[in-house]
Amino acid sequence: MENEAFEKHFQYFLAKNERKVNGLFRRLLWYCCFVGPAIAVGVLCEAFPDVTYGACLQTFLISLAFAIGHSVLYKFKPESSLIKYLGLAGLHITIFTMCVDHIGIYLSYFFVPMTSLLYCSRKTYIAMSTVGYLVLLLSNWQIAEYSASLRPDIDTVPWFIGIVGGQTIEFIVMFVCGLLINKLMIRHLQTMYCDEIAISKSEHEAYTDSLTGLWNRRYIERAFEKYVVVQRNVGALIIVDLDHMKYVNDTHGHLEGDRALKILADLLRKVFNKSVGATVCRFGGDEFVVLLPGIQTVSALSLTMSQLFASTEESFSRDDKLNTLAISVGASFINDLDMNYEMVFDRADKALYEVKNSGRNSFQIYSET
To answer: Would you state the pLDDT for residue 232?
Structure first.
């Protein structure tokens, strides 16, 4: 059971790595747009006698089309698995076009499969290797008649068989090396994953608020990475602010203020303990942040908030020194484009600001309208 849980969460970790590599591919495809113009300079200098300016333009336009398509999909649908294959297909088609247009880059057939190793996925690597070999066969067949005509001592088919035979041996050697590299990379990522999710005793102390025993503000980013970016959970983030703390500190002293913070921390634990993966942090001063993976609807979030307000009112109202205290809460749902907690926190903070301006002791969910 423990191994199954590890494998499941390791897949989330790989998904996070895939997003990063997609960003790398986006830049790589844009760099490929310079290949066509660079070869055109070579044509101008007579370095490529068999290449035309039309071939250079065609290479440029194909690279540009895939770069734009990949960037648009990456921006508006970053979680789509199509992004990976669009980038890899773009490189394959660019290489095929250049080979057919007599731009001699035969050793580049394995470039795409080797690049696909960055995704740390054996299936992706094997799929791209298969496509790469088919591109090798097809492009060589397309240029076989022309290349054979340059040598009067050999016909088209023997030339094709000879060149493909040599390139196939190279391809097999590189393919086997790629499998070994893939295995090592996955093993290395597993080690990195174990190191990332494990919190040592010293780290635990560094991430814990000494007064309340809750996580501190340093931990909220780590929790967001784990539950949202890696595990790709939907959810919500709420900011809880304790109102009238200055009055309590000025009237009854800071020890009473600390007691109030401890009471609120216990209430937050009690209310949110029912939510799987809930992370409660003391953000600083009299402000607390709660990350709630899995919360998707206004009704579910409102129900949880009702329980929190009922608990805090009951606890503070019957305390002679703390009965002036109340809470204000701002919340924001987490969407697919949220890659760091600051974006969500900013929206929840704006909702909290509205609550403060409208009289406090209430809660509001951020809305664009």
So the answer is: 67
Non-local CB neighbours of 219 within 8 Å, separated by 6+ positions: 207, 208, 279, 281
Which pLDDT score, from 0 to 100, does residue 8 have? 52
Q: Which token pair is 273?
A: 């303990």
Question: What's the Cα-to-Cα distance from 283 to each of 63, 121, 241, 261, 279, rounded to whole Å?
Answer: 47, 38, 10, 12, 12
- Position 2 scores a pLDDT of 40
89 contact partners, CB below 8 Å, separation of at least 6: 66, 131
Largest CA distance in the chain: 105
CA nearest to 37, candidates 61, 60, 67, 64: 60
Question: Which residues are known to be catalytic?
Answer: 286
C-alpha span between 350 and 308 (Å, rounded): 20
Cβ neighbours of residue 146 under 8 Å, at least 6 residues apart?
102
Bridge partner list, 23:
none
Alpha carbons 99 and 117: distance in angstroms, whole number: 23
Give pLDDT < 50 ranges for the chain: 1-2, 5-6, 107
Return d(Cα 272, Cα 274) in angstroms, integer.
Answer: 5
pLDDT at 369: 62
Q: Of 123, 106, 101, 105, which is closest to residue 51 (Cα–Cα)? A: 101
Q: What is the pLDDT of residue 258?
A: 93
- Burial code (b: 16+ CB inside 10 Å, e: under 16) for 341-355 equals beebbebbbebbeeb
- Counted residue by residue, the chain has a size of 369
8 Å CB contact between 218 and 283? no
Residue type, 291: L
Please state, in angstroms and rounded to a whole number, the distance separating the CA atoms of residues 364 and 238.
Answer: 10
Burial class of residue 276 in the structure, from the number of CB atoms within 10 Å of its CB (0-12 exposed, 13-18 middle, 19+ buried): exposed
CB 331 within 8 A of CB 365: yes
Q: What pLDDT, on the 0 to 100 scale, is given for residue 27?
A: 83
